[in-house]
Amino acid sequence: MVSGSTNRHSGRKDVIMQNDASPGLYVHVPFCRSRCTYCDFHVAALRPGVVSEYVAALVAEIRKYADSGFRPRTIFVGGGTPSALPIDEWKLLLSTLSDSFSGDLVEWTIEANPESICKDKIQIALGLGVDRFSTGAQTFSEKGLSLMGRRHDAERVSTVHQWFSECGVPRTSLDLIVGWPGQDLESIEVDLESVRSIDPDHISLYHLSYEAGTWLHAMRERGGLKPLLDESCIEYSNTFLNGLADQGYQRYEVSNLAKRGGASLHNLNYWLRGEYLGVGSGAASFLKGKRWKNKPDVSAYISKAGKPDQVDVEFPDSQRTMTELIMLQLRLAVGLDTRLFSELTSIDFLDVCGGSLRIFAEQGLLVQEADRIFATDSGFDLLDSIILQFVEDVEKSWNAGT
Questions:
Q1: Within the chain, what is the greatest distance between any pair of CA atoms?
Q2: By three-state DSSP, how is residue 39 classified?
Q3: Are the C-beta atoms of 102 and 129 separated by less than 8 Å?
Q4: Residue 74 pLDDT
């Protein structure tokens, strides 16, 4: 995000250009002890009877797909809070995944919240084949943790990562949030120093968003809190990114950085528009040209015993495929693959978006090299606007019959 700079992309070819992580498997565990103030995800209260029934239905859905011959290259167990599962359900879910799919995997990630993960769960997971943990730290500021409704303190994150080291977890990731109300440069320096001490392989750095229906959104609308100005958010984000770069992290996606080869293969598959299967209530899938979601209703999911209702079913046409490629691949440091764009849509990207591309390139926001179009650091600051313009170009071209 350093304005006018492209130097952070000098190593972009280190990120896989060919997707060898497709298909992926996403496993949704929706349960949380409490909802964070910024969260609009599909989550549910952690009630013991419901949890055991849900895991039983989840196991049935997993086995159904395993019996059908589905073989993922990556697994990502997310939520919700997977680490909040009781030890018996934790063991049952992970052993089912291991028995069903472990032979073909190149990566297996579990999301863990600091307050609910323990050494026993870590060791069980490692013994069953998990090789990556992603921890939701969000910040190391106690003020920020309280504002965002997190249930852990800053010291707990360091303790958990010490356990990871002691147990021999091969790869680790930290989630951090920038732009929360009241954040200042001093708190960012604290976060950066904590990252340096923990030294994870991967960082996900997200901008705080005020999603409708969340506590933060309601408080902002009522005037109960004052969001940071956009200029401050950009300044703080740049400070974060520069500090992480100084520690050796390379930005390979707009919100993700890695070192020691720590890029998330599962998420790269999404951004490369690879195939994936989602199991669990509300989980999304894209297989064999079909997109759908499991109905986001925990009670309904349990009642279907592994055969959930599918909603939002669609078969993307060329217009939708163009839009998806633009929205997904421009997030990557390697950028949009114009050759793949043409192969999947039978349309030349330059014929549809060439005019806007020239303008963005003149402004120093985008660069075209051979069959790749990628954002500069200043382009990443304005990526939403760039994508929106390209999507509008696609819509105009499509409506004109091009």
A1: 61
A2: coil
A3: yes
A4: 97
The predicted pLDDT at position 400 comes to 82
Tokens of 260: 């020691």
Each domain of the chain, given as residue ranges in start order, spans 7-271, 318-399
Cis peptide before 200 (omega within 30 of 0): no
Q: How many angstroms separate the first and last alpha carbons of the chain?
A: 35
| Per CATH, domain 318-399 is 1.10.287.90 | no
Sign of CA dihedral 274, 99, 134, 295: positive
CATH architecture of 7-271: Alpha-Beta Horseshoe (3.80)
Residue type present at position 13: K
**What are 123-174's pLDDT values in tens digits?**
999 999 999 999 988 888 877 777 676 677 778 889 999 999 999 999 999 9
Question: Helix, strand, or coil here: 152?
Answer: coil
pLDDT, tens only, 275-330:
999 999 999 999 999 999 999 999 999 999 999 999 999 999 999 999 999 999 99
List the one residue out of 119, 47, 125 whose CA is nearest residue 93. 125
d(CA 82, CA 74) in angstroms, rounded, equals: 17
